[in-house]
């Protein structure tokens, strides 16, 4: 990655972090941006589906129907004229296994993430699927 691309990657990740602040989840706030040709085509944060109460947890457990940030961002493009094909996904946390399948099927070709999720199987799957992956922790971005 050249200097200019790295500069943009840091800014997009910081924007994803700001977007994560919109999440009502208490345990973990995650933000996502989908970028294509240096234009943001979608965004998302983790939370409950439209029409549900904005409470992600019950008794310290995340409700099963909470959508992950990347799933929300990908689903937004499905309802628009945009396509994720050959796009880059910027995530504040690496994807889980289920979201990794969505990322691959959506045609996203590059993933840039800041924090590692507790389970790395999603990253391993994406690597096997040929998605370019860049880990860019927030603490080394400055």
Provide an overview of this structure.
This protein is an alpha/beta fold and 142 residues long. It has a single domain (3-140), classed as Cytidine Deaminase, domain 2 (3-Layer(aba) Sandwich). It contains four helices and seven strands; from the N terminus they run H-E-E-E-E-H-E-H-E-H-E. The strands form two sheets. The protein has a five-stranded mixed beta sheet with strand order 2-1-5-6-7, sandwiched between helices. A two-stranded antiparallel sheet has the order 3-4. The model has no long low-confidence stretch (mean pLDDT 95).
Tags for this model:
alpha/beta, Cytidine Deaminase, domain 2, 142 residues, 23% strand, two-stranded antiparallel ribbon
